[in-house]
Amino acid sequence: MPPRWPRQPDRNDPAYRKLDDRMNFAMHVAIFAATNSGLWFFRLFQYHDWTWTVWVTGVWLGALLAHAVYIFAIADYSPVTASGKLPNKST
């Protein structure tokens, strides 16, 4: 069953943005796993020289790790004001 959101979805809602970013990351991981497992499965047949699969997997894994670092360590899910700026916490 898909996740249910208790209120009207709004990208300005910090909790919704966090959930949306994590669901996008999960989709990224699933596509990575499905594509790369297929590439390495066909590489096992060794009909052709598929040395490029190492590079595809490595570059994609690097992008996946960068995505994970952003989502879990860098992303700021503070409330957004009407002007589109983060509220000033110093006052």
What's a quick, concise take on this entry?
This protein has two helices and no strands. With 91 residues, the protein is mainly α. The chain has a domain at 14-74.
Describe this structure in words.
Helices cover 58% and strands 0% of the residues. The radius of gyration is 19 Å and the shape is elongated. With 91 residues, the chain is mainly α. It has a domain at 14-74. Helix 1 runs antiparallel to helix 2 (52-74). The protein has two helices and no strands.
Strand content: under 5%
Oligomer: single chain
Radius of gyration: 19 Å
Number of strands: 0
SSE order, one letter for each helix or strand: HH
Helical proportion? 55-70%
Coarse morphology: elongated
Distance between the termini: 43 Å
Q: Point out poorly predicted stretches.
A: none
Taking all residues together, what is the mean pLDDT? Answer: 84
Main sheet record: none
Give the count of helical stretches. Answer: 2
Structural class: mainly alpha
Label this structure with key terms.
mainly alpha, about 90 residues
Compile the SSE list and pairings.
Layout: H1 14-43, H2 52-74
Helix pairs in contact: 1-2
